[in-house]
Write a structure and sequence with these properties.
- 2 copies of one chain form a homodimer.
- Chain A is α/β, with parallel strands linked by helices and about 400 residues long.
- The first copy, chain A, has 2 domains: about 140 residues, Aspartate Aminotransferase, domain 1, CATH 3.90.1150.10; about 250 residues, Aspartate Aminotransferase, domain 2 (3-Layer(aba) Sandwich), CATH 3.40.640.
- Chain A is about 35% helix and about 15% strand.
- A 7-stranded mixed sheet of chain A has the order 4-10-9-8-7-5-6, with helices on both faces.
- In chain A, helix 7 links the parallel strand 8 and strand 9.
- In chain A, helix 3 runs parallel beside helix 9.
- The longest helix of chain A has 23 residues.
Chain lengths: ~400, ~400
């Protein structure tokens, strides 16, 4: 297959360390080259020289909205429905409390028992504060758990381990049929997998800025609120940046009109500005091309793994059906942890999730077919040479 | 008075824009020169080359604790009682909920009606979640409002407008006498005004990283939890970085042993690393010298204002008693807003707070007596020339 047109030149916009084959864009995206100079400018010129005047002259004030508008284009939202701020966990807290308050009297939150843990923890905290129960079940069972006692559903669009995509329209419809509201976590979606929040009728969403969006380590996260809900939303982290007129220094809180009301404290300017600049890479890139490239890479990996790796005992733990496959592929293997470490020694980087998931992210903006072949050949070689069988590889260390 | 010894060389560690006289370190501290190269290294080397391995090799994981330990030395805390993370507003939410949960059955939160608004908003949100009432009164009346129905007191140590210092030992004792817990906001304290959280028996504190700590625009904030409380604390933003073993990816939350349990989502690495590096300027600097320099500058400003500016109608709105004066001085004047703009045109930067407070911050690490003289002469000159009387200065614009 030929490379897609709009993606032909995106790889060269990233810094790729010497000799590294990087399959962890689903954890921390590569550094866009442009952010080096950009961050230097933010620090030296905007902060160092501009000082407080940069809140206006460098438009620091509108960074959450400007980054949000760029993000909106990737997730099927209106520009004014998304703001970038805080962390995914904090944003989930804000939107889930808002959702629960929009459904008073209902007693349950339903969520995916296999969600990324921080989502489960925040769901539990919100439930505790509002005296609700949590029904944490396999994602596929969620529709069968919905009734008139459910206030909200929290579901990750692309599963962080298997990369299975849960159908946004279907889950949203089922949730609405029960009179509840849905919160989507798009951490493994935005920048790699298409979704259409508005068209699917979604209510709320949150997501992470440092994976396929390449915003840098611990980049600010984002949140989405459907325009039809925002004026009724009461979020609990009502800080001064969410006030209608922050610089009136009013003693009483009055929420800003739109999604701005979901902002809390002073925003992390350097991180937000880096994220916003990194998002410019997506300008002019078609979401269909991104999806096409992602499927091309994941399919090639699965086919090659079937051919070369199945005999070594590797099991593909991601959907074979491309329609429901995100942009990473997990293999399971009892020696998966050791194999990942030997790969890392060879500068081939993926990550590992308990208990035995070897995760390989295929970032449509920069990964290539050639890299996929190198990855599969390397795993094959490691198994043939038993290069995973070193005592130091048995001692677990955290992968992030 | 001679310059203090340990502060003799700190000014030159900051970038001072050409011709600027900067009196707004109480809003956004000057850029320490060292952060330029440092941030460039974090971005290019740690992110760009190290990628996910930098969570270990560059110790990204421990940034909240490492920055926290540096901060602890400035506020009279043990190194393990402070972590840097999130924003001041978010951190206030975490510690205030924790405080309220430690005092079940009590129905009130008492706070300073003139606190910085974001604190008031967060107090209101916590009260709403727990069905409590808020008693917002002038700070001095707080002790008279304390009874066995008060769960927590929230008070800013140095008032953001007047710079009045509220006695930490006395307010803490009064709070404890009523069986309640106290949360201090140290945003206008740390880095300029001494305080001793541990010695005064304080329970919780929060504060901002971008004022006298020079952490950069929207720098991460911090929080303090007295060691005696931490194991009983249940904070509501229980994200995966606060888990005892985040990389077990356990479905159920188990809080980390110490102050780490107050972390929430993935930390903003670039901002945290810049803050942590900026804090190194305080190494080897004595808190007494910082206080001495601060009082020298504020006293000189007040004395000069009395001599040169009182006749123009300026009123000193900060304490004349040095024992209760923080590191900024506010003047009040009906034309204050216009005067600040003309000062700004002359590259003399302070800020303005409604309705008529002209705030001048004197940052002990970099402001000089000579600058104070230039400031007072400039205001005097502006009044004599009526240079404030320009139509464009009557239109309000936000100062941050």
């Amino acid at each position: 297959m030929p490379e897609d047109n709009t993606l032909a030149n995106t790889r060269e916009r990233f810094h790729i360390p010497d000799g590294v084959r990087y399959f962890d864009g689903n954890s921390l995206g590569l550094m866009p080259k442009v952010v080096q100079l950009h961050a230097s400018n933010v620090i030296t010129h905007e902060w160092g020289n501009g000082l407080i005047s940069s809140w206006h002259s460098a438009e620091w004030r509108t960074l959450p909205q400007r980054a949000g508008a760029k993000l909106a284009a990737l997730i099927g939202a209106r520009p004014d429905e998304v703001v970038a701020c805080d962390s995914t966990s904090v944003n989930l807290f804000k939107v889930l409390v808002s959702a629960v308050r929009l459904r008073p009297g209902r007693r349950k939150i339903v969520t995916d028992a296999d969600a990324f843990p921080t989502d489960l923890y925040i769901v539990d905290q919100v439930a505790r504060l509002f005296g609700l129960t949590v029904d944490a079940v396999p994602a596929k069972e969620i529709p069968s758990r919905l009734d008139d006692q459910v206030a909200a559903v929290v579901l990750t669009h692309v599963d962080y381990r298997s990369a299975e995509i849960y159908n946004m329209e279907e889950f949203t419809r089922a949730t609405h049929d029960a009179g509840a509201l849905i919160v989507w976590d798009l951490s493994h979606t935005a920048g790699a997998v298409p979704c259409d929040l508005d068209k699917s009728g979604a209510d709320f969403a949150v997501g992470c800025g440092y994976k396929y969006l390449n915003g840098g380590p611990g980049a600010p996260a984002y949140l989405y609120v459907a325009a039809r809900h925002v004026s009724a939303c009461e979020q609990p982290l009502a800080g001064w940046f969410g006030h209608a007129r922050p610089f009136d220094f009013a003693q009483k809180y009055a929420p800003a009109e739109g999604t701005d009301r979901f902002l809390c404290g002073t925003n992390p300017v350097i991180g937000l500005s880096v994220l916003s600049r990194a998002l410019d890479i997506f300008e002019g890139v078609s979401i269909d091309d991104i999806r096409g490239k992602s499927l091309q890479l994941t399919q090639l990996f699965i086919d090659s793994a079937d051919r070369q790796l199945a005999t070594h005992g590797f099991v593909v733990a991601s959907p074979r059906d491309p329609a429901i496959r995100g942009s990473h592929v997990s293999l399971r293997h009892t020696q998966g942890y050791a194999v990942m470490q030997e790969l890392s020694r060879r500068k081939i980087i993926g990550d590992f999730r308990m208990p035995d998931y070897m995760r390989f992210g295929f970032a449509p903006l920069y990964n290539t077919e050639d890299e996929v072949h190198q990855l599969v050949d390397a795993i094959d070689g490691i198994m043939k040479e038993r290069a995973w069988d070193k005592p130091e590889y048995q001692q677990r260390r955290d992968f992030t």
